């Protein structure tokens, strides 16, 4: 098969390679990353094909594009620039092969290559340079603070689990932290705090059976057993809840700004990061009430979102894009007309990096998908197709948009 990939055009004809360029098909990404290591002599044609993809795709202001859509963009690019192509140079190719060859001529000629290197790729986008200073994606990482102040790094939790002073057993089951309060004794309430770092996420099963997915740079404070009239937990950051139904004991999520979310049995997402301009509560199933300290409240129905504007404390309800909001839980970043600052804040939390903008942040918006298991350079390569230039310096990303 290797002999078929001698020039950039050969790669652009391959659906799997286009899937790799798009970056959201894990099998394609793994295949081609392994393939190019095993076939280093193909690197020039491989890189050139990838640059052509980035050039054509980057004209759309998107972070990704489907294979068929890319072919349409490619054909459109050829149509718009046909006067620059000598018919004799493409006459021998079939229609699609001619299109690929035409873009090859446009994007890899001396003038076109200079334009790409200077205005699209930037000074730090060579694959070799990026790979030598890459940042791995986040993973399942968290720290637990027990009732007596003991801190436990959960990456290295003893297989036998932990035992709280009130008798609660804490164990791990398929990567989740699971609380078993069946042996608890006494009336004193003991609180634990589960915290994820930047670049970490974790799953938790509370003593009542409620399931919690904790996103990066977040924390949840909760009792080792629920007593009294309600079940209250305290959240900073972002989490998704699947609440165990107990009609006689409603479930409450308390946020730092005083906002309280009350539910009976439901699934919902809360995004309450300090560095975001809004606090968003999104209902998937069931029914929730979102209440402000001033007494104002709203009741959400499935697929609705309560948005609290931090600057004026206005609380509004709108329809929600559930797939986009829950993408983080499914291993993806999903953007839909999001501004650049929003995009970079999400990446910064997941890759545990600092983002610095050179000059004013451009008023540009982006749409597309990025796999959370991509390395930082892979994620930034996808962003680059939408016109974002970057430089990785240790744990810092310097961003400039042309």
Automatic annotation (TrEMBL):
FecR protein domain location: 193-289
One GO MF term: sigma factor antagonist activity
Gene3D superfamilies cross-referenced by the UniProt entry: 2.60.120.1440, 3.55.50.30
Cited InterPro entries: FecR, FecR_C, Ferrdict_sens_TM
Domain Protein FecR C-terminal as annotated: residue spans: 333-399
Source superkingdom: Bacteria
Protein name, entry field: FecR protein
Lineage: Bacteria, Pseudomonadati, Bacteroidota, Chitinophagia, Chitinophagales
């Amino acid at each position: 098969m290797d002999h078929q990939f001698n020039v950039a055009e050969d790669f652009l004809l391959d659906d799997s390679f286009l899937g790799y360029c798009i970056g959201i098909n894990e099998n394609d990404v793994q295949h081609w990353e392994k393939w190019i290591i095993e076939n280093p002599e193909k690197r020039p044609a491989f890189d050139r094909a990838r640059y052509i993809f980035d050039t054509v795709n980057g004209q759309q202001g998107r972070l990704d594009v489907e294979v068929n859509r890319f072919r349409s963009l490619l054909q459109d690019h050829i149509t718009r620039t046909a006067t620059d192509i000598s018919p004799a140079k493409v006459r021998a190719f079939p229609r699609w092969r001619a299109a690929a060859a035409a873009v090859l001529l446009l994007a890899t000629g001396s003038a076109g290559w200079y334009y790409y290197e200077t205005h699209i790729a930037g000074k730090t986008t060579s694959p070799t340079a990026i790979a030598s200073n890459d940042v791995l994606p986040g993973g399942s990482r968290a720290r637990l603070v027990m009732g007596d102040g003991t801190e436990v790094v959960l990456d290295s939790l003893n297989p036998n689990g932990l035992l709280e002073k009130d008798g609660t057993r804490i164990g791990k089951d398929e990567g989740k932290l699971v609380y078993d309060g069946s042996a608890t004794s006494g009336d004193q309430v003991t609180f634990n705090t589960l915290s994820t770092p930047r670049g970490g996420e974790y799953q938790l099963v509370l003593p009542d059976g409620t399931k919690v997915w904790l996103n990066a740079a977040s924390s949840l404070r909760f009792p080792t057993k629920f007593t009294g009239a309600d079940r209250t937990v305290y959240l900073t950051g972002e989490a998704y809840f699947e609440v165990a139904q107990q009609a006689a004991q409603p479930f409450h999520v308390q946020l730092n700004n005083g906002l309280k979310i009350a539910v009976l049995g439901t699934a919902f997402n809360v995004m309450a990061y300090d560095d975001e301009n809004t606090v968003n509560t999104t209902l998937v199933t069931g029914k929730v009430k979102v209440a402000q300290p001033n007494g104002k409240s709203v009741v959400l129905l499935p697929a609705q979102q309560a948005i609290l504007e931090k600057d004026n404390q206005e609380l509004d309800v709108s329809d929600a894009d559930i797939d986009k909001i829950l993408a983080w839980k499914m291993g993806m970043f999903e953007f839909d007309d999001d501004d650049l600052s929003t995009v970079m804040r999400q990446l910064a939390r997941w890759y545990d990096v600092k983002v610095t903008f050179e000059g004013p942040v451009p008023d540009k918006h982006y749409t597309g998908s990025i796999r959370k298991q991509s390395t930082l350079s892979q994620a930034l390569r996808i962003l680059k197709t939408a016109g974002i230039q970057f430089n990785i310096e240790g744990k810092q990303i310097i961003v400039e948009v042309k």
